[in-house]
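Example 3.
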Amino acid sequence: MNKKIIIDPVTRVEGHGKVTIHLDEYGQVKDAFLHITEFRGFERFIQGHPYWEAPLLVQRLCGICPVSHHLAAAKAIDQIVGIDPKDLSPTANKLRRLMHFGQVFQSHALHFFYLASPDLLFGVDAPVEKRNVVAVATENRDLALKGITMRKFGQEIIKAIAGKRIHGIVAVPGGVQKTFTKEERDYFLDGKNIESVDTMIEWSLAMVDFMKGYHEQHRKFLDEFAQFPSGHLGMVRDDGATDLYDGKLRAIDSEGNKTLDDISTDLYDEYFSEAVEKWSYMKFPYLKKIGREKGWNRVGPLARVNICNYIPTPLAEKARKEFVEFTGKKVNNSTMYSHWARLIEILHCAEEMKTLLHDEELMGADLVRKGIPRLKGIGIIEAPRGTLTHRYEVDENGMITRCNLIVSTTNNNEAMNAAVRWVASNVIDRKGTVTDGMLNQVEVAIRAYDPCLSCATHAMGKMPLKIELYNHLGELSYERTKN
Amino acid sequence: MNEQKTDATVLLVAMGNRERGDNGIGWEFADTIESLGYDFLDLEYREQLFVEDAKLISNYDVVIFVDASYQKFGGGFEMSRCFAASHGFYFSNAQAPAAMLYLAKKLYKKSPKAYLLNISGEEFEEQPSLSNEALKNLQSAIEFFDEQFLPLILGVRV
């Protein structure tokens, strides 16, 4: 009998969606999809608001990565007041960067320690009661304590700059609204009230070492699980170094050939388009010159490590080189290496935060600059989950007439679907039965991309995900819901 | 300010969202308690609990979680003891109080005495004010907290 498996909700991701897997009468997988079933329409209802409200409003898309939306919108709105990234004052630029590194640091810590580590520590087919942070806390207290403290450090950085851990405000058109004080800086350096930034670097290094050790024991799994060719997209500096806050867009194919050669972020619309599918509210971005079918790219830590010439902090660069050695210096197309790349980025952010905290310009007084107003602006940033694009158009009164948000998870839409198809074809296909462990592997594949489905559809409310199995007659024959 | 005394360190964690109608009842409760001037009691406002809140609650002898509830309680609210439990950890956020207590115990070796005050609401759609029913239940909960819970349960002399 033909069947369709539906995973609904998928757990330990941010957002609400479901997975459907279609089997034929022989138990062979015919197709598999990740459906994003929530809709919010944020781009529509922001229209009519004055442009300066955008960085405040759009961060409400998400409680996990509001800083990324705040800063991407701020970069776009900077352009509307005539300020390009190079025109920001050094203090504004460095404060925004520090907050961004704090955001990526805390978000990556949340994902690795709270969401992904149970898969690695207990195995992808571990019983459900072990697939959570409580089990990690119970069986690996030191790891859990480090994870919580690291996330808190990043949140404290955000709070010091923006006033709140979540949905704080610092960016204003053309700059920032406050500077940093010596007391605020010393809080993160002296280790008296919270663990110091030096400790964060030390622990980040330990996490990279943990991953290297895991890799030694599970290399076959990491290499093969949800491995498929794809493009990779991210932002780099003029010299090709990773830059999470500002730079040029670079994309490569699965072999490492450049498909987008360091273009200005202002030219995004010329190179990219978005497709829609009737079975998902999430869009499918792709490179126009390659086309819908093959022009999609992965984004996020793995893509960023793949595309860059180097990482501009010494310890993270050393870790990147070791990472690259394991794939024979070729492009890494294995989904599970995203976790390793994410830990390298945690280390990079810790190093960057230390450098910025020692920079006297962080405490400067030149906060806001103005230029000649424009009617549109585009802001692109490397958010924790990947390339995030905010684009706004305004009328002569400064009211927003058009808004387009292409979030990281949207960029990874096709990759997550490919990962689901891989698991369906390699784990579930022709097995005759569908176990809980098999279905969890679908979630493991999705989870590696750290999707934020609420961001991707700009949705709100309860956000679970689930799996369903349908037969060829369209009848639901299996369902799992976790909420 | 009322005159009060207790040797215990007490934390009140108000949970909710003022933009969601009666879901803001926990925060309104905390606002009122603050206005009564109980300086022995620390207040924290949360839209949801996070894993790292386990560290926060581990610093106190007594923790009182206050939240809105869909349930209709006789008298408009329910105060109950809350114990550590390890279930319900699917998501990264929106953790349950019992889960926070479990993490506090496992990670920080602390087991604060905890209570959960659920106050009945009836309208949870997007609006910035409480329903009349919720306001009535809020008042009942405050009177109970002030007149019975603090002196009789916590032994606070007011």
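Chain A touches chain B at residues 11-12, 14, 63-64, 110-111, 114-115, 129, 132-134, 137-138, 141, 144-145, 148, 151-152, 155, 166, 463-464, 482-483 (CB under 8 Å). The CA atoms of residues 468 and 479 of chain A lie 4 Å apart.
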